[in-house]
Design goal:
8 helices; 6 strands
């Protein structure tokens, strides 16, 4: 009940989230956070697989595969070794109450109207997603094919954005058309 929560907060209660609590328990893990209206799970899973292939000690957490809280408990109980890289999928809901997040890098996949029953406006929804940019210390990789994302970002200043397109020379050399993944 929203009124009960608001009443508790106004009475001095502190509201946190699983992600905020888990984040406060990390040691040296590097985080690549992923958000967007579509493509989050695919991107997060692919990042986790790529990190795993290179490092052998990485994991996808958040809104995908493993609960971040379970990961933290498993590390604390020495059931698993702390990951080098965590690929963190974040929905807009999760970004709403995650003040202490500091991602090493992040990815914005695509912006399109979604969850408007929860937000005051499309700008409010996009702003919630965009808050990840402000919580990223390194590069923010952005899908150049998302016209809403491009338009929204032009109204905000940020020097850390790296726009990615299949036509970019650094991406084009990988011959995406022959990839065994579906789509570009």
């Amino acid at each position: 009940n929203t009124n009960l929560i608001e009443s508790a907060i106004s009475g001095g209660a502190f509201l946190t989230s699983e992600l905020s609590l888990a984040f406060s328990c990390l040691s040296n893990e590097k985080i690549v956070a992923v958000t967007g209206s579509v493509g989050k799970s695919t991107c997060t899973a692919l990042l986790a697989e790529a990190f795993e292939a290179v490092d052998g000690n990485s994991l996808a957490v958040g809104n995908i595969r493993h609960s971040w809280a379970d990961y933290v408990m498993d590390v604390r109980e020495k059931k698993i070794k702390a990951a080098t890289w965590l690929s963190l999928e974040l929905s807009s809901y999760q970004l709403e109450n995650f003040e202490n997040l500091k991602a090493d890098h992040s990815v914005l996949t695509f912006f399109t109207a979604n969850h408007l029953e929860r937000y005051k406006s499309l700008v409010h929804y996009y702003s919630t997603k965009w808050s990840l940019v402000e919580k990223t210390t390194g590069s923010v990789f952005v899908n150049a094919k998302s016209s809403d994302l491009f338009e929204f970002s032009n109204k905000r200043a940020n020097a850390n954005l790296t726009w990615i397109s299949p036509k970019d020379p650094s991406v084009a050399v990988h011959d995406l058309k022959s990839s065994t993944l579906l789509g570009e």
